[in-house]
Design brief:
Blueprint: H1 2-60, H2 72-102, H3 105-131, H4 133-149, H5 157-170, H6 179-183, H7 210-220, H8 222-253
Helix pairs in contact: 1-2, 1-8, 2-3, 3-8, 4-5
Length: about 260
């Protein structure tokens, strides 16, 4: 009997030692994951603040940015887009930072849910655009033609602003080329079709159309765009996995310690 009790005690001691070693490993992994998640989201939080600041600056300083070859409406739309994007990135990054720093399970769950929703939305958008790429391309071309036809329509100045911005920035003329303006009975193309933006005729206009210019740019940089999208997806998946692991670690740890939210 004494021999049996001794053996049980030795076995219990070995088990406790293994449990302590396993718990130490879990603690090290949990702390390491917490630091990585904090650093990752601190970068996102800072980036969101910068994007938000740029958007607010452009919105406030619209009148002082008239020298830029971009229309007022385009600047305003870009400012609103940057403000919206900056707010989303800022809030998500802040949740990740606070959740990992305070080890708050509710914050980590909310962070995981938001990143998951964003990730699903990006996948849905990518699938929708890819599945309807022909109709999207056709719609863009039709909208461009419609804006060209309404270029001098004073009731819709956004068309003129959009066309001038695209042609000035992309250094292109018309949809397929300068002849598109000739087909619309224009004696000369708009001044945005030429480099000096002062006087313009069909001989000095940019030879490339805007649609071929955009297509060439996308095709040339497709792999870089793909790598960028893939990188964003990997970072989002990494953030989701880290938040999930950290929350699970906190829940297991709370089984041995007083409960914290």
């Amino acid at each position: 009997k004494q021999w049996y009790q001794r053996r049980v005690a030795i076995t219990a001691g070995i088990t406790n030692n293994l449990r302590l070693e396993m718990n130490s490993l879990q603690v090290c992994c949990g702390e390491f994951i917490r630091i990585i998640l904090f650093v990752l989201n601190f970068i996102f939080w800072a980036a969101g603040g910068v994007i938000l600041g740029v958007g607010i600056y452009v919105k406030v300083q619209l009148e002082d940015l008239k020298h830029i070859e971009v229309s007022h409406d385009t600047l305003q739309t870009s400012a609103l887009f940057l403000i919206s994007l900056g707010c989303i990135v800022f809030v998500v990054g802040l949740l990740g930072c606070c959740g990992s720093l305070t080890q708050n399970r509710c914050m980590l769950l909310l962070y995981f849910s938001l990143v998951t929703l964003i990730f699903i939305g990006e996948i849905a958008l990518a699938i929708a655009v890819y599945a309807n790429k022909d109709s999207v391309t056709k719609s863009i071309k039709e909208q461009f033609k419609d804006c060209m036809a309404k270029y001098n329509n004073q009731t819709e100045p956004i068309c003129q602003d959009t066309i001038d911005t695209l042609q000035s920035v992309l250094k292109c003329c018309g949809e397929e080329g300068p002849s598109d303006w000739s087909d619309l009975k224009y004696e000369n193309p708009p001044t945005s079709c030429c480099k000096d933006n002062a006087t313009c005729d069909y001989n000095s206009a940019y030879p490339e159309g805007c649609y071929p210019t955009i297509s060439t740019f996308v095709n040339t940089n497709a792999k870089y765009i793909g790598f960028g999208v893939l990188g964003v997806a990997i970072v989002e998946l990494l953030g989701m996995a880290l938040a999930c692991y950290l929350r699970t670690y906190i829940m297991k740890r709370d089984e041995y310690e007083p409960y914290t939210v």
